[in-house]
Every structure is written in C-alpha cells, then in structure tokens.
Amino acid sequence: MTAVSRTSAGIASVLALAMSFPAVAQDREFGGEIELVDPNVLRVCADPNNMPFSNQAEQGMEQAIAELLADKLDRESVSYSYFPQATGFVRMTLGSNLCDVIISYPQGDELVQNTNAYYRTSYALVYPKSGDLAGVTTTADPKLKDKRIGIVAGTPPATYLARAGLIGRAKPYQLMIDTRVDNSAKAMIDDLGTGDIDAAVLWGPMAGYYAKRADADYTVVPLVAEGPGPALAYRITMGVRASDQEWKRTLNRAIRDYQGEINEILLAYGVPLLDEADQPILSQSGKTAQDLPLPQKAQAAGVTAPADATDTAANPEPKG
User: Fold this and answer.
1) pTM of the entire structure?
2) Per the record, which residues fall in region Disordered (predicted)?
C-alpha cells in the first residue's frame, strides 16, 4: 500500500470504526475522547522486513506474541499494517488508525502511550565460543585490545568502544539502511564468521537471533557492566494511542497474566532477557536464550526485503 493510500485508508478507518464498534469507541470521562480499537481483530502495526521482530511472512517474534495475545483476548484473527520502522512509522500506522498496537516499543517515548514493560534487554557483545575471547563480558577487557570489532555507527555502545581505545580498529556498519538490499546485523554476523571482524556489538534481540541462525557457535554477552555512560539496556513495552486507556489496561492485564509465555517466545528467538538486576532470565526449563532451538519458521525466514521496504534503523530507537 502506498503512503497516499495508507493515509486515505486511515481517514476512512476513523469514520468506519466510530460507527462500526460502538462497544469500544465510547466517550471517555476525561476529554470525551474515543477509543478506536477493533474488538474482533487484533490489528498490529509492524515492519515488513525487520527480523527477528516481524516480516510479511509473519515469522517474527512480535507476530508470535500477537498470535498469543489474539488467542488469550478472544480475537477472531490478527491483521497487520506494514510500514518500515523509519521516520513516519507511528504516524502512518498507529496514528492513522490503521492498527491498534505496536508490539515492541521502547519505554518512555512520547510518540505513543506505553503499556507496562514486558521485557528488558541490552546491547550485546558476540564472539566465537572457541577462541581467545572466552570470558569477556565488557568492552574494557584487555583481551579486546588488538581485536577488530563490528559496531553499528551512531549507537550507544560506540561511546564505550571509544573509551576503551577500540574505535580506531572497529568496523562500522550503517545505522539507517535500505532493507531492500541491506541488513547490518546479518552482515556483521557474516563478517564474524569469515574472520573479517573478531567480535560484534549489536542490539540484543538482533545479536541473539542472528547468532542462533549462524553456522558457527557464538557467545552472546549482554553489555551490562560498562560503567557510567549512555544507557545500553532498555525496557520494551507495547505502544498504543494516547486515547486508548482501556485498551492499554487490557494489554497490561495480558502482559501480567501471560508473561511466562511471552518470555518463552522471546527466549526462543534468542533475545537475551534481563531482570532489573541485570541477571539473565532463563526459560521454564532453565535454559538460556542461546541454548533453546530457534523456532522453525524463524530459522526459515529469509532476509530479502519486499520492494517497498526502506531505511530501517538497526537499534531500539523509536521512529515517529
């Protein structure tokens, strides 16, 4: 769908929803605003090619979580409004009433109303399990002194690489990419496999997912011991419209009631989950994210983007 048709559809959907869903689109006591949430279909805002989060083949972890929510909330089905998670993502999806929830959104951004956080993770260091970097947990480790490290340019971990004197030898990868032809996370893990770099620093979900997809065995270490500086760990919520107070409460209850099942999905996709004390969260069977098998549909997921995908950021920064 083009940007023009998306916008037109968004305007039409406001009118249609207000008339079609009287049980949900009700006046709120403060401000008289209405909630335009479909009571029958879980309408999800998603990126068309941003694994491990989502893709048009519905192979991402956000889509697995959406299926879980739809089942638990007695929705008849799940539908997706796709738009690249670049500038305009919120405006062209949630803001245009084409969908009712963004499954993954950083806590604290004002573009959306956040639900309670349902997971916490951080940027991570990836290196071969068998090698001289075994045991490294921080960028300040002397073992990294003469190593070439892959880093997405402009992301917070670059500050720590510079502090440790590692940035001069680092290999930069683009932050904003055209997902029709590029994938910085996959490229970095591929380069790690060929020996072009010795270690990689990536946003945790991408680090875990692409490390699990790789042919080699890698260690994925959340960077939680870097000391003062830019935040590397983030709480992730679901994003809804500011007017959708009851919908937010519904999702908060679902997060509370089904947190364990959500964790299992995230861990299976390789997300290095952290508690508030920066300790790893394990699966119900006591396994780490890297010890669990990748879901079959995720293992089969391609990395070639659809023709209309473009400029997706390879980090957790929200996009308006």
Assistant:
1) 0.85
2) 282-320
